[in-house]
Design goal:
By secondary structure, the chain is mostly helical. The chain contains 6 helices and 3 strands, in the order ααβαβαβαα. The protein is elongated and about 110 Å long. The structure holds iron/sulfur cluster. Residues 50-52, 88-89, 115-117, 122-123, 147-148 line the site of iron/sulfur cluster.
């Protein structure tokens, strides 16, 4: 009978399992088994913003088969998602909703900026209605370049995310620390978008503009010539 080998993803290097136990015993670290469970069950949130979303939908279909990564279950609710794929142009009207959705996702959660628009504004950068990159408001874990990225590029980005998850340690990740993780303030949509984190600086700038200008120094009156 040929001896089965235990999957190398489970057995950690440095732990020698006797040959007679290799079919039924695996020795590993808590981090490794915990990360293995999470990396194969990342559930993306089901929403798209522009043309990149078409490629994302295509990636989830049978030809590219996201199910191989345990990611085929796109969730329609942020409460059940742990990956936000920002696929498309991020407009100033949409960013408050994106931040709100991000805040509603439970930890651990990850963000992928898919395409040139989500990564930095793309062809619409500096446009009057477009945000120059979603990372100005929420933290991004993986950037996928392209306009639009191909399904293969998106799959590559998802594998990069899996590698990132593999490097995490249960003792160091932010969501298991004692301190509460503050929610990101939702930007305010006005004549131009306002990030509440900048409000102190905006108030100071406005008060400087509103302050009455100091009166200009009057030239001294010339002395009358002597008679
Ligand atoms: S990066 Fe290109 S394909 Fe993607 S949303 Fe922007 S314009 Fe569309």
């Amino acid at each position: 009978m040929t001896e089965k080998t235990v999957a190398p993803t489970v057995n950690s290097a440095g732990y020698d399992v006797p040959p007679e136990l290799r079919q039924s015993v695996a020795i590993t670290t808590l981090d490794k088994i915990w990360n293995m469970g999470r990396r194969y069950s990342v559930w993306p949130m089901m929403f798209g913003l522009a043309c990149c979303a078409i490629e994302m939908i295509c990636t989830a279909a049978s030809r590219y088969d996201l199910a191989r990564f345990g990611m085929e279950v796109m969730r329609p609710s942020p409460r059940q998602s742990d990956l936000m794929i920002v696929s498309g142009t991020v407009t100033k009207k949409m960013i408050p909703q994106i931040v709100r959705l991000y805040n509603q996702m439970p930890e651990p959660k990850y963000v992928m900026a898919m395409g040139a628009c989500a990564s930095g504004g793309g062809p619409f950068k500096e446009g009057y209605n477009v945000v120059s990159g979603v990372d100005q408001y929420i933290p991004v874990d993986v950037y996928v370049p392209g306009c639009p990225p191909t399904p293969q590029a998106l799959l590559h980005g998802l594998m990069k995310l899996q590698e990132k998850i593999d490097r995490e340690s249960i003792t160091k990740v932010r969501w298991y620390q004692k301190d509460e993780i503050p929610a990101i303030p939702v930007p305010i949509l006005g004549p131009d978008i306002i990030d509440p984190r900048d409000s102190a600086a905006i108030r100071e700038m406005a008060s400087r503009k509103a302050a009455p200008a100091a009166p200009a120094a009057q030239p001294e009156a010339a002395e009358a010539p002597a008679a």
